Each structure stands twice: as structure tokens, then as C-alpha cells.
Amino acid sequence: MGSQILTLADVWPDDPRAMIVGLNPAPESVAAGHYYQGRAGRGQLLKLADTGLFPRPSGPHFEGVALASGVGFTDIVKRPSVGEGDVTKEEIRYGSAQLADKLGSAGMGLVICVFRHPVRALLGTDTGPGLQPTITSWGGRVFRMPGPYDKRENVQRVLQQLSSIVSAL
């Protein structure tokens, strides 16, 4: 939005299969220089690895294994903050429009949201965990991960759906 800030660089695969989209980076992730360094975020990425989207990394960072599998990372709002309550509606509107243009230009067919907030920002609606029925403005699909503390049976059901999607990519 015209201000210089320290944030995470987008990770764009050369041959994209999917993009993991967050609302905005956490300060601890920006300090580490890697996406999803918090406990909940790392747990969500391990679940994604278990669906076959990319292999589990040997260390704490996921970008390398994800990128090698055609999966990238980005955020709607680039400004780091502790929580979604610190992000303004104006930032979300601006970031969503910018990101939709980038994702559309890349022909991104699958967007995976680790948490719920980016789904509403990209689609204007959220029907809960799983593949969203609404198609993006560029013709892509959005998948919302179950919450990090969701019931085990819900997590298994939703991740099985993603495993089926991933195997068809």
C-alpha cells in the first residue's frame, strides 16, 4: 500500500500446482524469514504434507520441499501483525485485489488456506473447512484447512478430501 515494510517474500513455483495463502505473516515468521513458524501454522503444514501435497521437510522450514513440489506461499496483506484483528479492511481489500490479479495471471487452479480468514477475503464467503463451492474470479478453486484444534474426525474427513484433490493434480 505504498509503505516500505519488512515482510516475507512470495514463494512462486515455476510450474505451479497450488498456492498456500495466508491473511498476513506473523512477526515471528518474518523474523525467521520463513512462512508459518508458529506452532499452529507448522502443525497445519505438517497436515498438508501428510495429504501428499509436498513431502515433510527434514528441518523446520517448508518452502524448499513445497517449491520443489510446485507449491508456493503468499499472504493477502504483507504487513506482519500478531493477529487478524490488527489487519484493516482496507488492507484486506487492497491485498485481495492485488493477489487475485497475480494468482489469475499465473493460472493458479488451487489455493489452499491454512486458516479461515483468507477464504472470505478471496471469495467474499466461507462455507467452512474443505473445498469451497465458490469459484475464484480467475476460475480457480479454494480449499480451506480445518482449524488446528478441530475435532479429529472432522480433520480426517476434510484432509481426505484434499488428498483426493492432490492426487488428481
How would you describe the overall organization of this protein?
By secondary structure, the chain is an alpha/beta fold. It has a single domain (18-168), classed as Uracil-DNA Glycosylase, subunit E, CATH 3.40.470. It is 38% helix and 12% strand. It is built from 6 helices and 5 strands. It has a 5-stranded mixed beta sheet with strand order 2-1-3-5-4, with helices on both faces. The chain is globular, with a radius of gyration of 15 Å. The N and C termini lie far apart (34 Å). The mean pLDDT is 93. It comes from Agromyces aurantiacus. InterPro entries: MUG/TDG (IPR015637), Uracil-DNA_glycosylase-like (IPR005122), Uracil-DNA_glycosylase-like_sf (IPR036895). This is Uracil-DNA glycosylase family protein. Pfam families: UDG. Residues 13-125 form the Uracil-DNA glycosylase-like domain.
Largest sheet, strands/sense/barrel: 5 strands, mixed
How would you describe the oligomerization state of the chains in this entry? single chain
Based on CA atoms alone, the radius of gyration comes out at: 15 Å
- CATH topology assignment: Uracil-DNA Glycosylase, subunit E
Into which percentage range does the β-strand content fall? Answer: 5-15%
InterPro entries: MUG/TDG, Uracil-DNA_glycosylase-like, Uracil-DNA_glycosylase-like_sf
Organism: Agromyces aurantiacus
Keywords: DNA damage, DNA repair, Hydrolase
Pfam families: UDG
